[in-house]
Amino acid sequence: MARAMLQVENVDLYYGAAIALRKVSVEAEVGAVTCVMGRNGVGKTSLLRAIVGAHPITSGSIKWEGAEISRLPMYERARRGIAWVPQGRDIFPLLTVKENLETGFAVLPRGERRIPDEIFELFPILKTMLGRRGGDLSGGQQQQLAIGRALVMKPRLLVLDEPTEGIQPSIIKDIGRVIDLLRSRGTMAIVLVEQYFDFAQELAQTMVVMDRGDVVLSGRREELDEADVRRRLSV
After folding, report:
1. Structural domain boundaries of the chain?
2. Which long-range contacts (CB under 8 A, 24 or more apart) does 201-205 make?
3. Which of 28, 74, 112, 122 is the most exposed place for a label (fewest CB within 10 A)?
């Protein structure tokens, strides 16, 4: 059994007076996909923001590779191998594809600052578009670029926020294939927020269902009742 690498324990997170996460606990293992699901506005993105350091937690603990990281700034977590692909992709529209990928260099030692060939093996379309501006790409191509940029950082924890949102089915299949390949190598943990149950079920080893800032279901995919999960996701 892979050892737990990310341990989120009893985390509370507030936006002003509003509580977004309430005593949330989640684990993610290297060589496995942990999929966080739930309706809109239940705290899924807040959980990812807590993990990567984009928003401070009020209480609780976040440990990565055995070290407490919950007070570390975002760039320090990135240096420790945590890469985030945010919802909406956040690529730089005026930079070229190549320049967007090179922004992943920021956390790498100077001698390792190159774009791995593997990025273009995973996403061949990016190789043909290196000189094109990020803003000129389709939504699906931008999503591939956002994942490629995260992989340039050589992460050991990859955090993805709704990578299938607003993307054509053929590219959703490609992204699913890439996530599964990265998982199968056994070198990184993957935490994925996803709305589509079928996509999540195909990829996840562990599923976490949230509702109103709480974790209401959690376990190995095969142990959870599919009808129960689907019911909690329906509006």
Report:
1. 4-93+155-233
2. 201/226, 202/176, 203/33, 203/35, 203/176, 203/179, 204/33, 204/34, 204/35, 205/29, 205/32, 205/33, 205/34
3. 112
| Alpha-carbon span 153 to 52, nearest angstrom | 14
CATH of domain 4-93+155-233: 3.40.50.300
**Please, are residues 78 and 107 in contact by the beta-carbon 8 Å criterion?**
yes
Whether the CB-CB separation of 45 and 84 falls below 8 Å is answered with no
> 1: pLDDT confidence band, cut at 50, 70 and 90?
very low
Is 234 exposed, middle or buried (CB count within 10 Å of its CB: 0-12, 13-18, 19+)?
exposed
pLDDT tens-digit series, residues 111-143: 999 999 999 999 999 999 999 999 999 999 999
CA distance 86 to 81: 16
- pLDDT tens-digit profile of 149-202? 999 999 999 999 999 998 999 999 999 999 999 999 999 999 999 988 999 999
Sheet with 206-211: strands ordered across: 82-85, 157-161, 189-193, 33-37, 206-211, 214-220
**Phi, psi dihedral angles at 101 (to 5 degrees):** -60, -40
Residue 55 token pair: 């928003």
What residue spans of 24-138 are helical by DSSP H? 44-52, 74-79, 97-102, 117-122, 124-127
